[in-house]
Amino acid sequence: MAAYILGRCLQRAKDAKVAVVVGYFSYLCQEDREIGFRSLLRQRFPEIEIVEVLLRTGVIDFLITQSLESLIRTSRQVLVELRLGSGTFRELNHLPIQIVSEFNLDPRHAA
Length: 111
Known about the structure:
two-stranded antiparallel sheet; 3 helices; 4 strands
């Protein structure tokens, strides 16, 4: 979804570039997500260049990300509800995304 949104927004921009920033490689599906992002962007929007750089350098305008903490918290809640018999099995596909820019970057992470 992120590749499609960025591709649609940037497809008419001259010399558009997109960077891929991976937070946690220990998160098992992170590599699959990165491969999917790159693959869709290359297939549907070949005019957009994929570059490798960090938000702090001022080269990137914003990031679209998901909070690993939110994923863990939501997963834990589902498992607790199932264990107690008070919940129902549901997919965890609807996790909130975050958009991070220089204006809302946590000061502890700023260079």
